[in-house]
């Protein structure tokens, strides 16, 4: 039986790249825990700690901000989560990979101060984003609550990402966003669509001006909007989620009717997928749901 999970989606502008002061970020997060003492998970937008930039100096900012995940920034963030006793998703960060390339990586820290997940953005927004592409879909377990998947901004436009996370058993997908462009309206539709067709909670937390245009949103597994922000510069969307609701919707159907994870009959032949030079094997369609090893 899962416990309710109070979440806080922090719609905020990025911290300036010339002074990514982790001490002031720690003060900010500590203040939020006092204002919202019941919240167990705080999530920030894409690249929140790595500053805002224009295209012409993007490479310089990216290179200056990149660190190994186990570097000083990661150590400080882990300590912050431990000291405050919260689950912390400080947005994504520029990661200096062991292969010498820079990745846009979402990180998650537990209340024990452990980095429990790191997801490299699979679909950078080309040609504007020059980070290397990740190669793995990532979920993590929150004890007594459920399983959470990670995606970053443009990933939400590719249905394969959220489908893989749901197949890996995610009850909630955190989509960390930094969208300043007019297509935020379409992203709100995608948040609901991804929730509906995968029967998962979707949390899309966008940056505030000038780095984004806000309009963060939280959607339930049947596509209902639970909370939605406007273009305000600073706010926190809060909600209490029962992640077991996602599993209930999968078992009983959206609106008590549609069960998207039960379309195949026993022994049905695999469906070839020429687009991917791959296929859907009906025998494996439900395999990842409900606790199979996500790796």
Automatic annotation (TrEMBL):
InterPro entries named among the record's database cross-references: Aliph_Amidase/BUP, C-N_Hydrolase, C-N_Hydrolase_sf
Domain of life: Bacteria
Stored Pfam families: CN_hydrolase (PF00795)
GO molecular function, one term: hydrolase activity
Chain ranges of the CN hydrolase domain: 5-243
Alphabetic keyword roster: Hydrolase
CDD domains: nitrilase
UniProt keyword Lipid biosynthesis present: no
Classification via PANTHER family: CARBON-NITROGEN FAMILY, PUTATIVE (AFU_ORTHOLOGUE AFUA_5G02350)-RELATED (PTHR43674:SF16), NITRILASE C965.09-RELATED (PTHR43674)
Protein name as annotated: Carbon-nitrogen hydrolase family protein
